[in-house]
From TrEMBL:
Positions of region (Disordered): 1-40
Organism per entry: Psychrobacter coccoides
Biased composition (Polar residues): 1-24
UniProt xrefs under PANTHER family: GLYCEROL-3-PHOSPHATE DEHYDROGENASE, GLYCEROL-3-PHOSPHATE DEHYDROGENASE [NAD(+)] 2, CHLOROPLASTIC
Name under which the protein is recorded: Glycerol-3-phosphate dehydrogenase [NAD(P)+]
Amino acid sequence: MTSANKDNTANHSTGDFTDKTTAQTEHKPDISNNEKPSGLLAGIIERATKSGVGRRKLDPSIVESDVEKNMQKIRDNPTKLRLAFLGGGSFGTAMANLAARNGCDVTLWVRNKRTVKAMTKTQTNKKYLPGYKLDDRLKYSHDLAATVKNKDIIFLAVPSSAFRETLKNIAPFITGQSVVSLTKGMEKDTFALMSDIIKDELPEVNFGVMSGPNLAIEIMKNMPSATVIASDSEPLRHAVQAALHSAFFRVFASDDVKGVELGGALKNIYAIAMGMAAAYDVGENTKAMLLTRALAEMSRFGVETGANPLTFLGLSGVGDLYATCSSELSRNFRIGNMLGSGMSIDAAVKKLGQTAEGVNTIQQVHEKATKEGIYMPITHALYAVIYEDKAALGVALHLMEAGFRSDVEFVMPHDHSNAELTAQIQAATSDTDDDNATKGSGE
Ligand SMILES: NC(=O)C1=CN([C@@H]2O[C@H](COP(=O)(O)OP(=O)(O)OC[C@H]3O[C@@H](n4cnc5c(N)ncnc54)[C@H](O)[C@@H]3O)[C@@H](O)[C@H]2O)C=CC1
Ligand SMILES: O=C(CO)COP(=O)(O)O
């Protein structure tokens, strides 16, 4: 049993599972035999690192059975993927721990030398995951070059604000490694997603993005979870599945990189809205309305920017939206809750002291949607409350009075012929709106 398991004793009443079964039956990494990648793995890596290979569109049923076959071969031939995880926050640590527990050769890069020393000594991440013992095979380093050299896959789990800088720093050491983003955000001022930044900075590399309902603390507790690896490269998808998949963590595949990435980035906006709604003690109907209209906004935005709307029905869309909109473990939810309790955005961010990507994403998406004329009423409303000091109640009422629209616009497109009626209703209620529109109105 791994040291992580020793600490996490079984408590099924709280949903806390040990991974006794995994350790004993699923992954039996034989360290002594694992120094070199197996033939199968070497093949996967070779294919993954050759540009163009594996980029064809595949019949999903064939992919499913191929994945299963490959997974089986990998299970039958214990392998040692060489992985680097960059970013020692809660998510980078949780994912690195999963891979180490699966028998991969894993180094977690943390920029602070003293933190590396402390993690090596205690095998815990005291700041971001206090109380969770990490796998004793996990290695730590603050030497970026040494960490990324001679690796098969480099996973980035730094905040979006540090993503480009981190890629620039590793660029000199990239030879044939693949890169996978775990980051859920957008670059400030450029609206670039992490995959866009990878294409800018490392145009030759094979890359993927991973996203899904993956609250780090629940993963550390071995609560069953699932995620999505999206890449144009089939071999890379398989390699990531091999690295992270276990009885507690299922890794599904997709080739809609944009859709998967947008799901992870956009849901943070609505987690803030939902945290705020929770502070106002709204009912279940209201939460359901907010969640569902959020999904409509996300998929509309996705389609306008090149994603497949069906992707938003998957784990990285509705799955992650649900997880972060319903849990105080979500930092974005907590930010919303603090805002709803009357705190300013700056004070809330300071109090949180961790990454909450939604704070920046609201601004990016508000600007982009305004510029491109994409209908995103919840995002605009949230922007008005947070950045234009509008009263939340007045803004919420305004949202409720918006015109008649169809439910699922991909099933029945909106009927714009009722615009006149909508305008009349809005004119009739505008006096009330004006009264409620600013915080000085005595809301
Ligand atoms: N925590 C979670 O449950 C999940 C987080 N994510 C995403 O993962 C990304 C990272 O988030 P967390 O690990 O939760 O953040 P965190 O707030 O727990 O930690 C951030 C880490 O990044 C490091 N960092 C900050 N600036 C850096 C820089 N310039 N260079 C190197 N390292 C730097 C910090 O020192 C810290 O170790 C975010 O985009 C987040 O949305 C995705 C899924 C789940
Ligand atoms: O993305 C997450 C879970 O899937 C984590 O959400 P927060 O960044 O809001 O904590």
